[in-house]
């Protein structure tokens, strides 16, 4: 295990330090898989696994966990973990020979020692840069060479930012879809509402992806929901939890779509790595690019950014 201050990490990456120190700790989990822990001076933290580049935990300064992980999650280097924030690339859902939600979330990433410059802002305190390149097995099922870079950063105010960059190092164009598959921890799904989706068109996966228009001022939950909201506004989407008295605000760039999913009771019982009643304590709201796949020509790069903040609410 070794620990770096955010200042030393910034100097290694960009040549500039930051006097308001956070910490970046690199260790291993119980399976021997690399694990990165980000902390800020106020007590907020995030944990990132090198398996899948997946954010496993995000806690704000009160120490409360903001992400959901199933009590039945299978912790294995051979299977994606049910919970946290998973990187879905090069597809979301099943298509062709690729595995469900793509292969990026089930592969070993490496710490990127010399990443090209990322967009930065003065609020960044502690961050880690990860890199994924295709394996020989990946190229057999998806024959495209790429570099997928991920920066996960924890600001001094506890806000979490994820920036992904996909670069085509292939000799021909390729297309892909992408999602930050995010499980939020909620007090009770029946007490939660999602705002910022009003008047948007969405594809309803419970009705063969038929297109509808959201009519309500807020989305509430009384049964299974599985939707892809299209061309969502840049002002953000808010997940309001009345019982927890908190609101999570989701802002994004390069990710036009929003996936909203809760399996409800019947489907939860059919999911092996999800407790029968755990649907009550989780809600997925994903920043994504799904309806219109992203196409990159040789040498081109795409960037998708997710900014998550949490504020007290009444």
What do these coordinates show?
The protein is mainly beta and 314 residues long. The chain has one domain (2-312): Beta-galactosidase, Chain A, domain 5. Helices cover 7% and strands 44% of the residues. The protein has three helices and 21 strands. The strands form three sheets. Strands 7-8-9-10-21-18-17-12-15 form a nine-stranded antiparallel beta sheet, covered by helices on one side. The protein has a seven-stranded antiparallel beta sheet with strand order 6-11-20-19-16-13-14, with no helix packed on it. The longest helix has 9 residues, at 6-14. The chain is globular. It catalyses: alpha-D-glucose 6-phosphate = beta-D-glucose 6-phosphate. One of its GO terms (molecular function) is carbohydrate binding. Keywords: Isomerase. Pfam families: Aldose_epim. Belongs to the glucose-6-phosphate 1-epimerase family.
